[in-house]
Amino acid sequence: MNQGLLLRFENLVQLRGTCRQLRALSSRKVCGARWKPVELSAHPVGSLLLHPHLWPKHRLISGALSQCRHLATKEETKKKKKKIPLMKGEVEIRQKMTVEELAQAMGKDIDHIYEVLLYTDINLDSVEPDSILREDHIKMIVQKSGMKYKSAKLKEEKERKNTDAVKRQVVNYPAVLTPRPPVVTILGHVDHGKTTLLDSLRKTQVASMEAGGITQHIGAFIVHMPSGEKITFLDTPGHAAFSAMRARGTNVTDIVILVVAAEDGVMQQTIESIQHAKNSGVPLILAINKCDKPEADPERVKKELLAHNVVCEEFGGDVQAVNISALKGENLMVLAEATVALAEMLELKADATGLVEGTIIESRKDKGKGPLTTAIIQRGTLRKGCVLVAGKTWAKVRFLFNENGKAVDAASPGIPVEIMGWKECPSAGDEILEVESEQRAQEVVAWRTYVEQQEKMKKDLEVIEAKQKEHRLEYEMQQQKLAHLTWRQRKAVLYKANKHLMFSRPKERTEMDENTLSLIVKGDVDGSVEAILNILDSYDCEDECKLDILYFGMGDISENDISLAEAFNGVIFGFSVKANESIKKLADKKGIKIKLHNIIYKLIEDLKDELNSRLPPTVVETTIGEASVLDTFCVTVGKTKIPVAGCRVHKGLLDRKMKFKLIRNRDVIWKGCLSSLKHHKDDVQVIKMGMDCGLSLDKNLEFSIGDEIICYEEKEVQQTTSWDPGF
């Protein structure tokens, strides 16, 4: 009888089981139980003190000690709670559950949890009732117990109500609807004269301020006609890089003026512009520009457009065609009258009463005014003091500005206006809705933020569960391979298998840094940043060099950008923004590159150069000379026979300093250097074309008549990325 077992046989009679079970209790080795010796003075005679988490996991002992368990500790008696009944064998689980909480959720006692944990690699000596279990262990315990698990739902999901703002119902009462100006977008290929046309129409010098003659971001303007009509123009960029901005411009557009240069004809961006207009269901007006040039051919342009289903009126279609010269101002009024006539046919009307609805065309940050947005009002009349919601931000309108920067009191449908008073910059293309109060605006923003968070959590959870499933399968396969080993042997095998990873991590990190270009993109307005990001989305050369966008936003270069670039060895690209002298000095001190540009394709070319610098150089072979083997023989040097080839140079020359290769039946069988090169009996350095020579290699190889000897030079050439941004 073990000394630690202080049992009196007169009390053991009360225990369940047979005499064989009692003998098993007294054998510590048979049952594997760990008993704690106690003093008789502290406990009743015949009592048995047993640590709860070290109780035997065999049913034999569990049944025999059923009457003694409640005597283990006083704390366990206090913690003992009523078991929760199970519904259809499902267990609600959550993250960071303790052993005791899981037992209660399953309707089992703690012993059952310890029994299941025997089948895992968890060290039971470290597990207490209040120990937190990992999620994969929780799921495994439930499954091993023959039950199903489901994630506990948050109560907030059921109680939260939809507080989003929505558009008003469309009302077609003639008494409410009033005429509004048409919203016109000018589209076309780069350098075909779009900005010059707008400049001529509104008599301003926008084109002279544009860098490189390319419009860099969307602006909205009103043109007042002599007859009193108004036309709202959206100046969308014509460059291929801004295809996303162009598409957004047509979403709020009533009419598209397609500008095509008479001497160039239909180009790539012209076709894209036609497609955007068709997708939006917007009618076209064709403006054939640069008709004052001698090489202009308007008829060829009209015929080329037939292939893209743009049929002019003279060919029986419904597209008006106007020959203009934006630079000289010829026929501009004819184009404007054609626009007004088409607008009258469309009968454009809107409801100027009720809550305001609109669309954000552009957003930017101003140092003095804060976040500003250019918007087109579509319903209602916008005034100072209105509370607006767009995306996940809101505004109480403080000031309204027209296209000339002058303050206005109100903006009716079809009128572009710049709005001041936003809490943050919304994204270009967001829908503007007016709400009743600031409290209501905060509710809408809170709901939209909550919905976005829930969607993100749902996607993250799907990714996490997929990864966990993958890791679980790997773990189970690994456990099956090591099932015949003890847990100590398993740990030793796993340590040896993963030991090399600890030493390879620094090297892998270095390689990753060398082949990764980290970027910080800053732009003047939201649309410019969006356009650059759309170009970067087309990057498909991850195998050459990875592209990692650390941060993007609006505004000038700041110290935070420098710190972030320093941490990740990144490069800062700025578009139409500035970096003051202190920022430049700080960047030079820390070795951070700041690249500022005002033209989009210049920025992309600079980015490609930066990508090229991250690529390792390639070795290029340049052939210097070629010779044919005409005869073979051997020369004895000491006791060694050296094969020698008698050759004739038929192209270029052979230079002993260069590298050579031996080609037989179009296969390269040797590369290296020559051990000797002789003309007759003289050692020479160079053999020119038409001369005979004898040569031997630095390796003992047998020559064959007809072999080719190639003399070449190796040069390192910088690689260039194969990424094509589309222009």
Automatic annotation (TrEMBL):
Q: Which GO terms describe its cellular component?
A: mitochondrion
Where is this chain's protein located in or outside the cell?
Mitochondrion
Please name the PROSITE patterns in this protein's record: G_TR_2 (PS51722), IF2 (PS01176)
Coiled coil segments of this chain: 454-481
Please indicate which superkingdom the organism of origin belongs to.
Answer: Eukaryota
Classify the main location: mitochondrion
Record's function text: One of the essential components for the initiation of protein synthesis. Protects formylmethionyl-tRNA from spontaneous hydrolysis and promotes its binding to the 30S ribosomal subunits. Also involved in the hydrolysis of GTP during the formation of the 70S ribosomal complex.
Name under which the protein is recorded: Translation initiation factor IF-2, mitochondrial
Gene designation: Mtif2
